[in-house]
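Q: What structure does this chain adopt?
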Amino acid sequence: MNVSQEKTGDLTFSLKIELEEKDYREAVDKQLKDQRKKVNMPGFRPGQVPMSMVRKMYETPVKAQEIEHLMSDTLYKYIFDNKIKVLGSPLANNEKTPKADWEKDTSFTFYFDLATQPEFTVNLEKEKTTLYEIEPTEETLDKFVEDIRMRYGKIEAPEVVAEKDMLYGHLEELDENGEKKEGGVDTDATIFVDRIALKTIKDKFIGKKKDSKITFKPHKAFKEINQLATVLHKTAEECKDFASDCIYTIHSIQRMNMAEMNEEFFKRAYKDKDIKTEAEFKQVAKDDLCKTYAQQADNYFFNKTGEQLVNDVKMDLPVEFLKRWLVETSEGKLTMDAVEKDTDKYMNGVKWQLIEGKLIEDNKIEVKDEEIVNYYKTELLPNYFPSMPNMSEKEQEEFEQRMDKIAKDMLNEREQTSQVHNFLLDRKMTQLFKDKTTVTNKKITMEDFIKEVNGNNSSEKK
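A:
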């Protein structure tokens, strides 16, 4: 076995791997012996088929498989032993690699193209950044308070439909003659009256009673395709050409009355707060709303700082190698023409990954399993399993034990845990940017913040 490399550019080189029969023969013979034990052939007892016959049937594919394994192991062992910081991944050079005859050849040569990571520095202290503090308007805060009151309100069944009511009923599609359409929509449907976009249609519902029948055009009542799809119990694609009249029969009317602003409501809404007055409640609600805003501001701050670093950090990249790497590893999703068209976007993505990796390494940033479990327990699960007020000490302890077990079990759900890991990593990176860049805090309304985000929504960082 011999491995040699040849420099092909400032950050690229070619690796040549030469294998002889002595390098793989022992592994091939072992696999054939194992295969012999499994072969069943008429005229021979299990495991007693002559080795010459086993070789004739299986040696070529086994040989190819073992050489592939050996070649791969040799490639990555060389990278590890020589502490090569690979950029992207090794690419087989099929033009230089001789075509193998797996049956006749005994020696094999493979060529790979590789790129190494460039040297660069990241100086966060020189970066000047802006962190927005989003201030809710009085109107927004009032709406937020109203939503909380609705959430903890009481449901009643009024006799007559009003604008804020929710209706349960049955929807039937009509044909051109106003008769029930054969094979058409025929489903139970929930309708929120205040979501009906057209006033003339909304007025048809207001004032009606249980068992009333209303004929209307759903595609005009619900202009957003997703709302229409929900009412019709169809996909958005199926609703694109839907223009029929429908008849809706009201089976029940429900109305949510907002909770009264009293201490009982304050305790239910914010059980950990000792709220006595409406003014105190409004301040707590404002703080709650600002936390939500702060998360949005942090996300924007993180992305903008990342874009800034991509623009400011100087590094050379093996562009041609990376374009080829992107195409060959995309599993057919990318063509060279597509990559050529958006080369800057793809190179910025690579730059960000390198910058982020260096910052994580230099600042020893990591996300531990216990941090993920804690996130599940304190931030995710409470949305689905809120603790009940007035629990005894024993009930509280049992509740916390259940949440702890669920959180630890969720750690085994790889896809979700990977998402949480990345979220917590971004959170730590955001804090790093806050700590080490020169941050200017700027107050802004949500309306102006949205304009700011929409004016900069061409981010290609990640």
